[in-house]
Amino acid sequence: MRRESVFRSIIAVFLVTAAAISGYHRHRAEKVGEEEISLQEEGLPTAVALRSSGLVLMLSVLAYLVNPSWMRWSSLDLPRWLRWSGAVSLSLALWIFRTIGKNITSTVQTREQHELITGGPYRWVRHPLYTVGTSFFVSLSLLAANWFMGLASLSVLVMLLIRLPNEEEKLIERFGDEYRAYIERTGRLLPHIKRN
Q: Does 196 reside within a domain?
């Protein structure tokens, strides 16, 4: 039982830290961008489904933190080394948020002063925030040894994958051939593997 409280403490620290990093950078982006960012451009069904699956994910993590017995029905018997492997994904989030800066939005809409970011992790991957966000919550599900949290994380990823073509269309509208060339040299969620 003591070990479980250690895992819960790590998850709580990770969650608070990730929320602080995300909140800080999103707040800064909102202050810089004067225009209203709308969810309408991504489509109501996608917006509702994505946010609903994200809410289910967050509620499952919070339920585990408040009282692990609430989530016992979906617990897994994982070896300790595998559970501890979940403690590695947070540092990438800071790098991504620092790189994207004022260009971050919660929807497919770009800001009026939006810049195409191609440095840092964006040098290799067009949407590293989605990759790291998913791996972060999968990592939390490993720490919690809970299959439902992992499944909820993957459902959020599926919804993001459904939204991505629309998002990339908006970026092509905004940046044209520059974004098309960027697509050619980068992977969507993972770096391209070059074949000789």
A: no
